[in-house]
Amino acid sequence: MRRLLNNAISLFVVIIVLFLILPLPPFLLDVLLVINIALSIMILLITMNIAEALEFSIFPSLLLITTLLRLGMNVSSTRLILSNGGYAGDVIAAFGQLITSGNVVIGFIIFFIIVLVQFIVITKGAERVAEVAARFTLDAMPGKQMAIDADLNTGLIDEQEARVRRAKIQKEADFYGAMDGATKIVKGDAVMSLIITLINLIGGILIGMVQGGSDISTVLQVYSTATIGDGLVSQLPALMISTATGMIVTRSVSEGSLNTDVLTQFTAQPRAIMVAGAALVFLALMPNTPHVPLVIVAIILFVLSFLISRRMRAQEAQQIAQQVQEAAPVQQAPPSETDYYKDISNVYSLLTVEPIEMEVGYSLIPLVDENSGGKLINRIVIFRRQYAQEMGFVIPTVRLHDGSMLGTNQYIVRIKGEEVAKGEILVDYFLALEPPNPLGEIDGIETIEPAYGIPSRWILPENKETAEIYGYTVIDPLSVMLTHLSETIKQHAYELLTRTETIQLVENLKKTSPELVEEACPAIVSYALLEKVLRNLLMEGVPIRDMVTILETIVDAMATTRDPDLITESVRSALSRTITRSFCENGQLRVITLDSDVERRVVSSLTKNDHGIYLSMGPDLLQPMISQIAESLPKFAELGAQPILLTSQVIRIYLSRLLRQYFPNLCVLAFNEIVGSAQIQAIGNVTVPVPGKKAAGL
Fold first, then answer.
1. pLDDT in tens, 78-135
2. pTM beyond cutoff 0.70
3. Are 270 and 314 contacting, i.e. CB atoms less than 8 angstroms apart?
4. Closest C-alpha among 597, 598, 617, 615 to residue 606
5. In whole angstroms, what is the distance from residue 260 CA to residue 282 CA?
6. DSSP secondary structure letters along 110-124
């Protein structure tokens, strides 16, 4: 029985196809016509109550099934009209009498008006809306993909959720593409209805006069009434399906077979089933309508609606009971501030400096408070896990609290007690990141995206879809705040690496490489030196997951030097695959290079004193270099790539420290840090004229 139920839709489609061949008795045709009307009402109501097309993803297939059902019944009704003296059941006869009211001419006029409204207004409009929706969905795909990649890169989502979102975008495009083609079916159905009407009328007249021997007036009265009734009982559901088509394409696709989706999505709308039954009861109360079929189907729909509603209420009650059981017990009210600090040991807690703090204004508390549905803490947990997997460093706990001195929409981020970032968001708005060439202007409050400095504007929720169509990347307020927090933590991760955390990393390494740790730490490599090397790597965005390679390289490098900077360069060379993977995109590395003369002059400017080695470049070399690098940075922004300067290992670290003052986001890499399989693409070259060379040429 279960297997038969799961394949009920497939069997139903096969039976519909048989309607084109097998004759149907009038009573069975009456029941099927009433079912067709009720099905159309339910589809129309469901499309009016869903928020997005994903909730009714079976619609394109359902559109084909309902059209095939109407055509099958049209063929059966035509067979009955032509072979049964114009009688094709009580439903067709009642609809024919209802529309003609004893006057065939008026009946034909009203019938053709209904058909033209269906064909010219509803069907034509739905076809155009589906075509435009399909085009806009395809145009918006790149922007949505970029938004997913941005969330993934900032740690807001994990790889699995990113795959789910990409699949959803693809399914949306497939859905609207299918709807664009499905509307052609509705158009063809309207045309076919007119053709069948003419066939019924002309064929009925010929059969009635030639074979039946009746007079022309009797034949016209009988067959025209049956023809109009047949056409009307077919066009009424077609009109509602066409209207539903226009509605659903203005608001992609669920997973599972069509049988499962139909049963699941229909049983999720008991109110639509109940209203459809009420509509059939209303029709049964009208004179000259087939009362028995209407009442039978209405009772079935009422029973189904009642059973489904009772099941849903039982599930909701079970969920509420489960939530009450899982709810935490009510905590006692905390002591007052004065009583708390009477204990002098509690005063010492004020001296603690939190590694990461985030203060939020009053309006932003709902985004943070889990009791109010805030999801910021869960998103931070996801970011911490992803950052640990990528970089090998566990971000300390982020302390969240409200800031009484802040504006209602403001927030600040502190690292070790000092403010390092500040932002302001509007909770009831969405942030639309402005693309290079937007397709249109969108109303909103102009601002700057806090994490990346992108020109943006705050827009109302009802303008979200329009902004996405125009090419804007739309982000919710929580994602804006979390992106800013995560980028700030990444920039200051090296400051968060403490001696305690360094020891913890070594202890964790003992579980897999105890011999290496026993040999190296702290006998050869002190924890202080290891901490400096790890900080140098994190400062320039190099992952420290491969602690085995890092520690082995430090041990080897200490045979020749104890300078943490030189040891760091040796470690970077050993981590060349990791560095290449971190900065390469699709196997390509877009970089700025230094001219050989510039590199030579930079090497000659290296100066050593008691505090170490530093660059001592004059303005004639430094200013042109900074100017040319600044001119090349917009090219990286256009390509969506990380700005990288490629140079030799000798000057890499000193040049990186110098340029970080001017270009915080510029990454300086050495040639020996790039594996041979990477394709290097130079999009800029720094060339500084040698003093006196031009004069000599003259």
1. 777 777 776 777 777 777 777 666 666 777 777 777 777 776 776 777 677 667 666 6
2. no
3. no
4. 615
5. 31
6. HHHHHHHIIIIIIIH
